[in-house]
Description:
The chain is an alpha+beta fold. It is built from four helices and 28 strands.
Amino acid sequence: MASRKNNSISINKYKRKREMNIGIFIFAIVFIYLIVTIIMYATTKKISVYEVREGSILTDNSYTGLILREEIVVNAENSGYINYYQNENSKIKSGANVYAITSQKLSYPEETATDASLSTEEQNALAVKTQSFNENFNPQKFSSVYSLKNEIANTLQNASNQTKTAQMDAVLSQNGSSADIYQTPQDGIMVLDFDGCESLTADSFKKEDFDRSSYKKESLEDNMQVKKGAPAYKLVTNENWSVIIELDKDMAGKLADTTYVKTRIDKDSESIWADFSIIKKDGEFYGRLDYDNSMIRYSGDRFLNVELILEDESGLKIPKSSIVEKDFYAVPKEYITTGGNSSSSGVMVQKRGGNAAFQPVDIYKSTEEGNVYLSTSSLKRGTVLVKPESSETMALSETQPLKGVFNINKGYAVFRQVTILAESDEYYIVQEGDSYGLYNYDHIVQEGDSVDEDEVVY
């Protein structure tokens, strides 16, 4: 029997070769990059950058002050109905007709009660002033609006006074009434309000005079009935006037050496300089503001809201947190020179054997007294400097502190000294244009103590 051949075929299994998945590889790289970035961000020092800009700081304190002035009450010389030749709060000269007394009320025809008219010259003058204002208006000096307003008001007031006098003459003529006409005894500003405080002075006022809840004022007007000996009008006789304000002990101490101060009157936002002094009376402190102009604008007021502008500085505005303090050597300018072919500033340093070698330095401040400030990091304590073209020497020992900030315009921290002009709770105003200081749009570190000098800032 023929033997059977084994026709079975042996099958060997081979491991399949895996191909690289490029997508997984890229994903792994990106994932690792993200992890490293997050770790670096979490561990890297955070540095906030601040852009220096021009700004200002205004420090003011508001008070309600008591007005004191030279004023006299002129009493009526007869009984009857009083009518005025002048408008209230207007200047009148000695001997001018001021009021008339009649036995009956006067009748004012409608045609006489017209507004004041301006002459052609007055109209042209106002037009020129208004045009000049429009051409030169600066939003940063808004007080100029009130100056123009006052000029226009004064012009209209003068025209109104002339009209009022003409009206009175016409009314008396038309009514056919006999009238007793009286003149003012002296120059002054006519006021028709009375409050009983006309005799107050800086020596006689009391704390109770500031109580506005008990303050009363009476006013007169045309065709009112008056009795002989009763007030007819009031005359402010001097342009010098004062405002008394109440101060606490701390503020009185701060203002003790102040002799003049800039003030802003809330009534018309006008800024006026005043002489200033402190009054102590009955254990209380008061500030006295003395003015020598603008009385006519406030002649009818007894109380006035006043702001004391104690600081009004403009410059570069920077956060207080940016300020750091560093120690420097103060060296006379005579020790500063230039070396070799370089224009860089430096000093001559004495070496062993007595020879002197040039060493460049950075100057951080220059003073009017003739000193420059050099960094303690570039020169060690005890270094002996040689004065150029001289045998004089000086050893560096004592240091002086300077306030400044870290400028990062070049990508690393550079100390720049600052001169502080004013401050608020969060900011300083520093001087602009210092040779070794800051300029508008510079970039500085917002938290000054978060970096070291020459540290690279990303």
